[in-house]
Amino acid sequence: MANRSLVLANFIPYRLSVTSNLVSDAIARTYEALFGLSIPEWRLVAVVAEAGAITQQAIGQQTRMDKVTVSRAAIALVERGLMARAANPDDKRSHLLELTGAGRQLYAAIAPKALALEERIFAAFSAEEVAAFTAMLARIEEQALAIE
After folding, report:
1. In what side-by-side order are the strands of the sheet with 54-55?
2. Using CA atoms, how far apart are residues 142 and 148, in angstroms rounded to an integer?
3. Are 107 and 49 in contact (CB under 8 A)?
4. Is 15 inside a domain boundary?
5. For residues 29 and 61, is the Cβ–Cβ distance under 8 A?
6. Furthest-apart CA atoms within the chain: distance in Å
7. Mean pLDDT score of the chain, rounded to an integer?
8. Tens-digit pLDDT profile for residues 3-28
9. Residue 75 forms part of a structural domain
10. CATH code where residue 94 lies
11. Which Pfam families does this UniProt record tie to the protein (predicted)?
12. Cβ distance 94 to 53 under 8 Å?
């Protein structure tokens, strides 16, 4: 592999990025049209729905989004009444984000559509292929984290 030339179309990190962008764009169009949410806003809603209450810093670590993106999305969601900030009893310098009733209703409406979109994207693949792909993604993440 040492004598290879860089050809973007064959460079796996580039292909991962392009594929991720294509999937994110398809999702973004759907969530924006149906719910008026950006991708970062949707990610926050999903993470907070799963966590119950979580700090912006923890969201950034979990989603790999930068602090400014997380902050802007949180502000927008709080302003829309979908999320609330609460004092963090473990760290007075930070706040916990929680979904409001309206936020939980929104998540309940979005989650089935997210799963349906995932099904559409992976409909041409067998269950074994999807499982192998998911396992490989986890291993790629592991390797990338080891480089940091």
Report:
1. 54-55, 95-99, 83-87
2. 10
3. yes
4. no
5. no
6. 58
7. 92
8. 789 999 899 999 999 999 898 888 88
9. yes
10. 1.10.10.10
11. MarR_2
12. no
Token digits for 69?
């993106």
Q: What is the pLDDT of residue 87?
A: 85
The whole-model pTM stands at: 0.83
Neighbours of 140 (CB within 10 A): 13
Structure tokens belonging to residue 37: 């949410």
Domain span including residue 87: 39-147
The CB density around residue 107, as the number of other CB atoms within 10 Å, is: 18
pLDDT tens by residue, 75-92: 999 999 999 998 888 887
**Is residue 120 situated within a structural domain?**
yes
Total domain count, the chain = 1
* Nearest-5° Cα angle at 38, 25 to 41: 130
